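Colleagues,

Please find the record for the two-part complex below.
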Amino acid sequence: MWFNSLSRALGCCLVIVCQSSMASSADDSPEVFVLNDQCPAGFARNAENHCKLDSLYNNYQSPHGSGVGGLRAGLPALRDGFSPRVIDLGRYLFFDPILSADHTVACSSCHDPDYGFADGLARARGINNVLLGRSAPSLWNIGFFDTLLWDGSKASLEEQLVGPLYADNEMGNRPDQLLRDLNGNTIYRDLFRQAFGTSNIALDHVYEAITAFEASLVSLNSRYDFYAHGLQTALSPSELEGLNVFRSFVSRCGECHTPPLFSNQEIAIIGVGEPEGRPFDPGAAATSGIPGQRGGFRVPSLRNVARTAPYMHQGNFDSLRETVAFYNGGRGHAVPEDEDLLIHWHIWDPKLREEELDRLVDFLHALTDEGFMPDIPEHVPSGLPPGRAISRNNLTSR
Amino acid sequence: MNKKTVFHGFGVLCLLLMSAVTLGAVHEVKDGESIQAAVTKAQTGDTIRVFPGTYHETVFIDKDDISLVGVIEDGEWPHLDGEKVLNDAILYSGNGFSVEWFKITQYKGNAIMGQSGNNFSIRNNWVIDTGLYGIFPEFGHNGLIENNILSEIEDAAIYVGMSDYIDVRNNQVFDNVAGIEVENSRHVLVEGNVARNNTGGILVFITPGLPIKSSYDAIIRRNFVTNNNTPNFAIPGSLVAGIPSGTGILVMSGDKVVIEDNIITGNNTGGIIVTSGDFVTEVASDKESDPHSDQVEIRNNIMFDNGNDPDGEMKLLMLSKFSTKGPDILAYQSATQKERGSCISRREAYRSYGLDEWTDCDAPTVRAVDAVVSADDIGTTRQLMTKMLEAPADPRVITADADGAEVVYSGICAGCHAYNVRLIGPPALVIQAQYGDDVQAVADYVANPERRRPDFPSMPPQGHISEEMRLLVAEYMLGLEG
């Protein structure tokens, strides 16, 4: 079947990208950093030198521009429109540990392309290997979101990214040190000049570039998408069965994981509970101040979800199969006894058969598309090793 | 509300009828055959005629303008039977979908569930115990739900969710938890339905936490809302589980709702209840959804024999108002406030509570001579025939020109083909070298690709793109420059 070979080819493709970049650096000539004048795959450059997403979804509407609907519904607005160079600069910054206080942690340390731009860990690890409270979310399609983080407390990528950048337990940096480090690096001064026309690096330009890169991480060409656009043979029979379970009002998956983004961006209280020994996470209530949102989290997108195990805000489940089984466990079955949560009305006891859960997992795998994977830099301007997920050390044993 | 509207209302009806009759091929399905197999074969515009027999399947329609038509012979219906194993009888996402003349029973989820299909038509279906909902269009613009009969549904028999421009007409709903529920939807006409012996007859809600936040402009008109006293048998935790048995019409957070010319009798808790968001639901609040019911107009309804035995908390509430009976009309919580701008006609006719600050609506005597001609001049909605659109809601289409070709190329092709870099497929440069300017050859190949390069995976066929568009895209690809 073509789609199996497609996914194999994706793997091959990554290998090839890595090999070719290694080949280019094999002669000991110093790395020359030139920002790309072409937009990332999937984006077209307009007359103003802005990269705008080209997607078949642009041609569909969604009710009230909400970005939710069925198969051929429009997406929410994407944070696109950045110049190719700003996006490419963001790519270097994203992978460069120079952004952290001790130069050990990059954005990509927790958002590694090989793990669906998450990190393969139940809970992320910050600077000095500190274990954080929640799992690192995937960044695929993050530019479509206007509610960011697990608790939905941030409305823009710029607003969000300063959180980890300056949090003591994440990247631990301070604005003055960040500016000093970047302005002290002649390569970055040149790259910022290429991107912004000034080599005097300002924080807003740093944030803008990282935002631009993150918003370019678009995954909209999965087998599911081919089906949605009208290619009837794109999904296998078992995946089609899974799609029908997914959108059924029995499972109700699609009521919150609404196509085409596979998230409605709302806060939902599903009552997943915490791993053994962990305190109860109040979720959105802690930041919104709305007591009724206790235990609520922003509905995550399911695109590329097969690449981002483990699942839920503290990595409760290792596999998709365990995750879908949670929803079949009965309303509130995992809520601690002393918690009285306003569990979402769609959480109930759907009594799905075991094979229906299997089909759901089959379908979730059909949401995988990493065709627009950006180039992963072998070298970053600081000369530091680009940040990659800790889990990579265990890659061979996985 | 003028003659133009009347005319257009008929125009929409004619369009819907014509589209069902005139377009496409006809596929026939007989007992023992698969309806889905016919759907898979069908092209846009086709009709599938299903003959009497029992069909155990989930039929899904993800293409446009498909009509499913049951054929009834000597009183024998085509019967979709889920045997309480299958989830849904019919799932559709295509635009212009039409389904009629089916008997649907014993599913777990829904009889007919739509996600985002516009211009749908669901008529003349007979639905018994299909689980949670009967008819469930969601995210749709412009639709007609008419002449269906539904019973024994655990949630709403007819649910209109996050949709716009919908008519719900002449249906009969009984022995359900909710008869008809309009949730987070706008421009809805609920007219001429019989909602009897449900837990609650007709509901207009805003539910917080949904991505489309408003519910306004609904007309609830000329319905029979009677004896909705069935004990609530909803699944605990569901939104309707808190609806008191004996509720006629319930407006919760909905705005600009006109309740006019209905017959509302024998509902033991109350005839009409207008309230704010936290009345029956325990749902996490949502900063963006307004919990208040604004601009509700209650006019000229015949109401008696309501409130004989109020349920649960409503009984306590009425006792606090020194009454053992429930109300004809109750405004509750913020719905009582003057600034909500609600009005009532003939207020003295009803046993009502909480309406002191409501203003008086017009309550005209409608005489035969002016029932049609000057209806809106005298303050009724009689001349408004439909809330559906004058012309079908169009899905935007990709233009068959160079702009459209660029969109298709970038959206689909560029995922695998870069200009001069090997991605999943060969670079556009390599393809240009091979095909030169043979646009037709490329357009043909992509519709039925065969594997030619051992070092690349097979290409997924793109036959879903029209030939015209494939030619344009091929031209675009062969003309690409670095």
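The first helix of chain B runs from residue 3 to 22.

Comments are welcome before we finalize the supplementary table.
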